[in-house]
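Much of our argument rests on the idea that a fold can be written as discrete symbols. Part of our work consisted of pairing the sequence of a single chain with a tokenised description of its backbone. We regard such an encoding as a compact summary of how the chain folds. The amino acid sequence and the backbone structure tokens for this protein are reproduced below.
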Amino acid sequence: MAYSNRIAEMLANASETDKVEFAHFLANNLDSAEQSRDGARVREYVAAFDRFAAPKQGEEF
């Protein structure tokens, strides 16, 4: 079965640098000023990207 979620596929294929840059973008634009400067918050975003990008059982990219 082909994986149909293009966002998850893109995140799975993205470099760690790309994911970190995207996480910083989201933190700067969605979080409060305090949270956007918090490195732990950015790491939480990157971890969420990795969880979202993981193929479900039986699916392949």
Observations:
- The radius of gyration is 13 Å.
- The mean pLDDT is 83.
